[in-house]
Design a protein that fits this description.
- A 5-stranded mixed beta sheet has the order 4-1-7-8-9, with no helix packed on it. A 4-stranded antiparallel beta sheet has the order 3-2-5-6.
- The chain is built from 2 helices and 9 strands; from the N terminus they run αββββββαβββ.
- A hairpin with a 4-residue loop joins strand 8 and strand 9.
- Pfam families: Self-incomp_S1 (PF05938).
- Keywords: Secreted, Self-incompatibility, Signal.
- Belongs to the plant self-incompatibility (S1) protein family.
Length: 137
């Protein structure tokens, strides 16, 4: 009877550890960078959040960036959206979606965005080129 309880405890503990590793270190930490490429003397306002975290409002100067890091959850539902604003226009954009970006899209778990005058671009590190993902509203 005692060895059965020990076996069950070992199984439960092993499952708990496996799930913990899946949600933290095994998948790796993601780093998201949002760069202001609007042009000289043009600031970018950035306010990003997920279901669980509000990253605050940040003023990003030209060629500066706002960045953060996180682990995606086990269900791959992690999503960060950002309100981005420049002088005359603003918009709400999904900057990280685990289902879209959590695979091989972000090279070495580095997701890089360039905010330009005509829209928001994802930097594809494999092709070393910007890809237009969103136009300003």
């Amino acid at each position: 009877m005692g060895s059965s309880k020990s076996s069950n405890l070992l199984i439960v503990t092993s499952l708990f550890l496996a799930l913990s590793m899946m949600t933290t270190g095994v998948r790796g930490m993601y780093h998201v960078y949002v760069y202001n490429m609007l042009g000289e003397n043009e600031n970018l306002w950035v306010h990003c959040s997920s279901k669980d975290d509000d990253l605050g409002i940040h003023l990003v100067p030209y060629q500066g960036d706002f960045h953060w890091k996180f682990n995606i959850n086990i269900f791959r539902t992690t999503l960060f959206s950002c309100d981005l604003a420049k002088k005359t226009v603003s918009g709400h954009f999904v900057i990280f979606d685990a289902k879209r970006d959590g695979g091989h899209k972000c090279k070495d778990h580095q997701c890089i965005w360039h905010v330009k005058k005509d829209g928001i671009y994802f930097y594809n590190a494999y092709t070393m080129a910007d890809e237009l993902m969103f136009r300003w509203p």
